[in-house]
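Field: sequence (string)
Field: structure_tokens (string)

Example rows 1 and 2, in order.
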Amino acid sequence: MPRIFVSAFAVPDSAIDGVGHVNNLEYIRWMQEAAIVHSAAQGWSRERYLETGTAWVVRSHTIEYLRPAFAGDALSLLTWVAGFRPRSSPRKYLVWRAGDQRVLAEAETLWVFVDRKSGRARSIPEELRAAFEVVPDGDEVLKAVRRGGPGSLLALQRAG
């Protein structure tokens, strides 16, 4: 059960904007994809949400861009659940570049758990909460990537 999910990829040419670096919208797309894959890895796939008649929707995204990313950069996007409220959950993200071992962006999405038919927020069931280990302190993630790069990323996934 990865408490911190790590997705590694190379920046495609198609992600580059007119200024020559990764377009801001790509970060949001990568964040959403990582959240979906992390959820599936925890036993909550799209099919399971369909079966339960539930879904997650975004209430807000906050991204702080610290450095630009460029075509071909080897990146790691880390994501983790930072907590649970009765009907929502903040999820945090960190984008890290292997080449210079630098953090490029830090972000958070507030996800709201909803009923698919009504679209109304509903309480997050205990079985869903239990599928994710909450990592309330993002500083632990920052310290680990600054300390040791890729080896630290694997250790973060397994640590509990």
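Row 2 begins here:
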Amino acid sequence: MRVHTTRLTAGITRSKEFEKKGLASFAVNVGTKCGHGCFYCSTGAVLRMHRSFREAVEDPFGFGYAIVDPTTPERVAEDARRLRKRGMVQLCTLVDAWAPEAKEHDLGRRCLEAILSESGWTVRILTKNAAVREDFDLIEKHRDRVLVGLSITGTPNQTDILRVIEPHASMVEERMAVLSEAVERGLRTYAMFCPLLPGIADSDEQVDALVRFAVSCRAEEVFAEAVNARGPGLRLCEKALRDAGWATEARALAAIRRGPGWSAYTVRLLARLQKGMRWHSDIRKLRFLLYPSRLVSEDRHSIREDNAGVIWLGET
């Protein structure tokens, strides 16, 4: 892993998009490229023009490297003191504060300490790394002000496939174990099932198992989303799976690279999540994040007829 450092300008920033999603009003990010190397990641498409890629002489859509800013906690601490309007901060929205390159500088814990040292702030943690467990002692001291979430992208029986497309993230069973431990320690939790890829994590049985897991973790909310088709992520996932010998799963991804395929997959995924939440939990806890621009008209109409749990984005 090639690790580059950069100097960002932001600490705690307003995030109207994540506010619309119901996740947080503010965001913190500790770099521009995460070392987990998930092939489906859309961050490269969002940040592709950022100067840090030119300075590192790296392709925003490439792999095998990370870009991190070790000085982030200093700006976060300053903003946590300075800003008068306060609320929920998501740590992080574009990269992972517990990925290996961030963990080397203890960025997740240091940012948490900086935010929680000031009153009026709450934090939503989102990570794919079991290393967040090492900071449960800090979170316990502020248990009412922190929501712990680990991105769960499938069930444990799909570990071998997920390792292909999430090569440096903690194994999904490790993430699930850490979220279960958070509950045992009396911490607040939420579920993040994103993305649930077709042919890998979107069957009736898998979605049902994930919903039951969220219930067992006393998740306050259950977020889910169809895979973001922006950028080259789907194509890269398809190639990685095909090269690793997972031809059936690669074909399932290829089928959603066009609008009608993605639209049908999204309708199926939402229906399965709604069914599981109604059966095992409370549909009012579901937060299905949906950008409808790629939906075909009949599928958009179908979702409109039963849009329980849907957060419509990108439209009025």
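free_text_note (row 2): The mean pLDDT is 96.
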